[in-house]
Amino acid sequence: MDRIRQDLRFAVRQIVRRPVFAAVASLSLAIGVGANTAIFSGVSALLLRPVPGVSEPERVVEIGRSRPDGSGFDSFAYPDFVDLRSEVDAFSSVAAYTLEVFSLSRGGKGERITGMMVSPTYFDVMGVRPAHGRFLLAEEDRPGSAPATVVLSHAFWSGPLGADPTVVGSTVRVNRVPVEVVGIAPADFTGHMTGFQPDVYLPLRSAPTVLGRDENVFEQRGSSWHMAVARLAPGAELDDAATQVRSVYARLASAYPDTNSDRSGRVVPLGLVPGAGRGPVAAFLTVLMAMVGLILLVTCANVAGMFVARATAREREIGIRLALGAGRGQLIQQLVIEALLIFFMGGVLGTVLGVQLLGLLPVDRLPVPIPIVLDLSPDVGVLFFSFALTLVTGLVFGPLPALQTTRHDLTTSLKDDGAKRSGTGRLRRFFVAGQVALSLVLLASAGLLLRGLQRASSVETGFDASGAYLTGVNLDMEGYEGESGTLLQRQLVERVAAIPVATSAALSIDLPLDMGSHGTSAYPEGWSDTDGRGGIGVDFNHVSPAFFETLGIPVLQGRVFTDDDVAGTERVVVVSRTMVRSVWPEGSPLGRRLRVGLAGIREEWWTVVGVVEDVKNQMLTDTPGPFVYLPLWQVYRPDTKVVVRAAGEMSAVGPALRRAILEVDPTLSVEPVISLERYTSVGVLPQRLAAAITTGLGALALLLAGLGVYGVVAFSVSQRTREIGVRMALGAGRGRVMRMVLRGGLGLALPGLIVGGVVASGVGFVLRFLLLGLNPLDPVALGGVSLLLLAVVALASVVPGRRAAAVTPIEALRSE
Amino acid sequence: MIKLRNIEKSFKTGAGETFVLRRISGDIEKGEFVTIMGPSGAGKSTLLSIMGMLDGDWRGEYYLHGEPVHAMKPRARIELNKKYIGFVFQQYHLLDDLTVYENLEIPLSYRNVKRKDRQAIVADTLDRFQIVGKKDLYPSQLSGGQQQLVAVARAIIAEPTMILADEPTGSLHSSQGGMIMDLLAELNREGTTIIQVTHNEAYAQYGNRIIQLRDGWIVEEQE
User: Fold this and answer.
1) Is there a single domain that holds both residue A61 and residue A40?
2) Which residues of B are less than 8 Å from A414 in CB distance?
3) Burial A114-153 (b: 16+ CB within 10 A, else e)
4) A86 and A25 in one domain?
């Protein structure tokens, strides 16, 4: 202990006496540790933390529909869910749920809220008790019951509702349907998914009345639309449950081959990210962790190189200590303590930096359909991770220079020419080559992701986002209903289209590439739904006539809607190219009829009057499916986006659009205006995030590699001053000296470029799921970043090279 | 005390082997004050380094207090060095970042002397060398003579039986050089064996024996 205290004291003095070295080294490490802390906080928040408020969360599981090979984690058909609930005895309770966005109005004021539709057993599965009132009752889950009840989250009750105790028992309107508030959830329970904290919980059976969903979805095996969670029965394990779920699905596959032949089920532990998204989120975060892991290695190699350089300069001191009787172990201990102290400083700084970086993340401003609430505040796990990371990197990289430096024989060190020996030089060159290799891998990742994004702009989306702007108006919250709502919407479109810079304007309930969709079943005339298929699964949208023109969606056949397609006239629809290919592969689709499984209109026949191009509805990587457009003037929908195509910038169009809407009704609540390009960019959000992070890290790695090369080349030049002088005295020109130094720099980087190049060529295959179809060996990306790195290495060598070439032979020889 | 038999040291060069020391043999008894002299490149400092176990790459037999150094592993040589040997260098080689007190303390620390004992020994040594007032100064704040005084104090603080001094006065002017040589002589009178390398004829006379080296060979010994 005494020696450690002495070493620690000496280490502190080293830092105080040489603050620049300590500052540069610890700041460098802080960047690596900070990046890792920030990303790990995301990993912790999304994947590692237990779900708050849930009793015995390890006994709760998520169930998903999979393919027979076990892949996938999709939504359920309700009849399948009912069979699972009754046949799997490894579950003590099972609940179905969906995530929704509602409008809630009370006292004449409306607001947009998030919520879940759940089986009443949901709260049993989660093991929670109401803070006030009661939860949903079993009888509220019976067919046709649809009792109008709602449970509020504690946050919603205590926030917007001001913790009013009289709320329980009162009536609020959710999507215009009056519902009775029956209870308040406990404060520590915020739903079972991270990012999605529901304001309200409604019975699943009220989906037809509240959401207008087809009543038949509860009987159709062909329609998958909800997810499920379950609590394991006492004594049952997850594997038992999984086996039983697969066995039920095997029976269903035999009983209902038309709908269930390619279905099985999966059971996964409850996590904050839903089972369906956990795989992609984990893969994405793994990639990010790998990236920041690389930058940590780069910074560690950089700092280790700095320690080697400093140890080289300290060889005399080390020689003296050895001569005074220090054992090699004692010296290594001293040098390692010095290194660990700097690593510790870097770790503390990095943790602070990481937490600050997290604060800059605009999680709440992401253009996603459902508001995200993400608690990224660092917890004990994150702090432990940062500490462990610092300790491990310190213990790995700290001793290396110490081991190398204390290996030399003493006589040379004490003669003061120790710095001219090659051992530490080799180690430093190794670290620089490592930095170059790691930098190339990071740069290649950034290059591929950027090229992927560049390619994204050329992917055929089926619509034109440029030059279009949008906002949202929900008339549910504004007191308009039915005819008055349609009238106002028509006025809105006319007024917005009359903005001087506008070329067209439209309303729709959905927009492409926003990660969301509206799905139901369609029943083409002539299709039999007696076999349990229940029609064809389609996405749908309610749009005003100029929607296709405003979004630039090409019309392939027939016509689009007109202002004459109003209630009381022939009911018409426009369908997508893939819908035609799936349903009417032969003959003209025009004039064909179909029914659409939406509450209130499912018995009506709709005639196809036009065919439009497929659009990417949720993500850029979507494969287009059948799509049906319904005229908004024939079926009123209160919650719409207002889209305008205009020949102007956001600064001009934004205020004009807002002004135009308020001119129609000054009391309307208007969402902020954004461009359609930005709104739909959520479809490539993972790619954009990954590209932004890797580009930043790549640039940093490039800078560090450049500094590393510069350091070694400059050191080498200072060691070779005499040699350079002799060469110049013998007739070598400045150009030749310059070339010699440049060659040395490039030679230094070459092993790193080769190793990094080999690894980088494999990176594309790992990142393939983010590359939007780009060739993982894209020569432009890989070649470009290699050339960039080479240029930086050359630049880093040119500076000391110029200095070497400027030395006169007399000065050089005097330096000996 | 020291027995050297056919000590040789050489370097491999492109042209073959270049010898620094050739067949060095001889004995040094306890309490002797031996001076090694010779022109530059004769091998004086190399011989001193071998005797001080700073250099382990040589051939021949070397016994210190009867123990065969040539057969020892590096760790055992370090232990032997700690037990018997103190060094004084021409360039003082004080540790720049340590105070005078800490420079004196460090050899004791490497010998695992307890903190309390270290404090007592360092205090005695500061007193003996009359440098108590300098104990909190750094080497850069001392004159050359004062630095070498501290270096000698540091060399003897762990009570070695032998001090190896490599041109201890080489960087000092004559008055300071004389003071250091008087100090070494006094230590010798108290029983410490001194082996010094010097170019200075006058300081060579402090020893009871002079060994002359040339081109790695012992060419003459004078009592």
Assistant:
1) no
2) 54, 89, 93
3) bbbbbbbbbbbbbbbebbbbebbeeebbeeeebbbbbbbb
4) no
